Amino acid sequence: MDTMTSLNDIFREVFDDDTIEITRATTADDVDGWDSLSHTNLIVAVEMAYNVRFNLKDTRALKDVGELIDLIDRKLAEKG
Amino acid sequence: MLFSSYIFLFMFLPAALLLYYLAPARGRNLTLAGLSYFFYGWANPYCTLLLFGSTTVTYYCALAMARPAGAPATGEIPLRDEDAPASLRQKGAFWLSIAANLSLLFFFKYFNFGIENLNSLLATLGLEHLQFEGLLRIALPLGISFYVFKMVSYSIDVWQGSVRATRNFIDFACYVSMFPQLIAGPIVRYREMAAQLASRMHTSEKFARGTSFMCLGLAKKILVADPLGKVADTCFNAATLNALDAWYGLFAYTMQIYFDFSAYSDMATGVCLMFGFVIAKNFDSPYLADSFADFWRRWHISLSTWLRDYLFTPLNYMLLTERVRERMVREKFRYNYPAIASSVVVFTICGIWHGAGWPFVAWGAMHGVLLGLEQLRTKKSSYWKWPRALRVCCTFIPVSLAWVFFRAADLRSAFGYFGSMFGVGGRNAGDDLVAGVIYQPYYLLSMAVAAVLVWSAPQVWDFTRSLSWKKAAWCYGLLLLSIATLVTKAHSPFIYSAF
To answer: Which Gene3D superfamilies does the record cross-reference, listed alphabetically (chain A) (predicted)?
Structure first.
């Protein structure tokens, strides 16, 4: 399963919505309930699912789902 | 100098525009900075020294923190690499800038409050002889909360490498002091202004839109906010009040504060446009919000995003320990502990940012708690199936109740007002006197106009997007009516200019 597909499942779980279909261009404005408060849930869910850790700087620069996928892939590559 | 005063509308603004447009293109930022210092110094010239001093410190600190050692003294400064090891000079410059700005804010805004509370604590402990007496009463320089936040955001952005430190002192001084935003915001970020400071278009469309923003903003202030303010003042200052009048008075204040502050923001946006600057929306129909988080995405956006970026997010991460992470996962994200705790802390700080007093703390904490509790509601909650109008109502009422703290002189008066709203105290002889004032047809009309504008009229932002002759006629008609009212009635200062 590629990162996009697995990430889509996480989005559906965190935002409690089985109709979510993310793309690389998806931003917080496109997902109902994705705000600075619920963002914490998303980050923790992603960290746990991929067994990686993000720091504040990693996530601060994220502008869309594409950048989140790149960040996950980078962290996974760093882990080896 | 208030935006709604004769001196601003008929003397300062026309003269400022004339000087600005007569100045050569290269000298326009300098002209605008000079005009802003004149504007700021109008009430108290000494305050300009404070503004200039803090601007200078922030400017040089940003240069010191961003410029790599041995870099040439000219040319564009690269974005700072946050991962690169920082030298002692760079770290020192960053912390000096933050400390200098915040200590300025703390000293001028919270010194008196701190002393008063210390004295009452000492009195409670029976240590009256240790109380501070006859100390200097510090006057709050206008706009300090706003321009300090602008400079703190610049320093952090430069430090984090999201904006380049500027070498152009005039541009930076122009950004900090820009008179339309100086007294009550919006807290515009440097990164939104950097390119516009370097070069911007001056078009007749922009100028016309700016003028419409000004006209509509002035009308909101003079024709709606000020009469509602009279109702709110009467109710909040009344010795006794029956329940209906208390609710009516709170509704008046709820509308007053929105119209007063959004009018100021409209006028600030309008004046900025007249000088060629485009700034982001500060209000987005906040009373149409259907949750508290939604309210804060729509109310005073420049402040809420500032708090989100520089306080909420870092605090959230600090609270995200391994144990908390594991617990959140175990409980299937039902409880977002860091966000709940951060909301309460950040909004309490938001409260005290507005003013040094316990009622502001209570207002902020109430919003923090409401936001935190709201996190417990999932997307599948039946709340989201309610009609939108009902959800708006369920947001509007608690937001209005919180304004009691914002308006009341102290906590005792706030709780007294809540008491009146819920029928504690019964009817009194004075009630008829209050009713005789607040239910005058002029005030009832203002209330109705406010309600229609809040819940069904287009925003000024959208109304002015494309101007027609008909819309222009509306704007100028309202301008004339506002000026006529200004001449015949006393008007009050903008509420947010006190922060």
So the answer is: ACP-like
Distances (CA, A) of B200 to B47, B192, B250: 29, 12, 43
For chain B, list residues with pLDDT below 70: 133-138, 425-430, 490-491, 498
Task: Write down the pLDDT at residue B134.
Answer: 59
Q: Where are the domains of chain A?
A: 3-79
B96-151 pLDDT, tens per residue? 999 999 999 999 888 878 887 888 888 878 777 777 765 566 678 889 999 999 99
Phi, psi of B77 (to 5 degrees): -85, 130
A-chain residues near B293 (CB < 8 A): 35, 37
- The per-residue pLDDT for B123 is 80
| Number of cross-chain residue pairs from A and B with Cβ atoms under 8 Å apart | 54
Residue B40: both structure tokens together: 């700021």
d(CA B215, CA B420): 38
> What does the pLDDT look like over A52-74, one tens digit per residue?
988 888 888 788 999 999 999 99
Element (H, E) at B309: none
What one-character-per-residue DSSP string does B91-118 give? HHHHHHHHHHHHHHHIIIIIHHHHHHHH
B354 labelled catalytic: yes
Q: Domain spans of chain B?
A: 23-200, 206-498
Residue B204 tokens, joined: 């007749």
| pLDDT score at B446 | 93
Please count the residues of chain B: 499
Separation of alpha carbons B102 and B105, rounded Å:
5
Residues of chain A with Cβ-Cβ distance to B379 below 8 Å are 15-17, 32-33
The domain defined by A3-79 carries CATH number 3.40.630.30: no
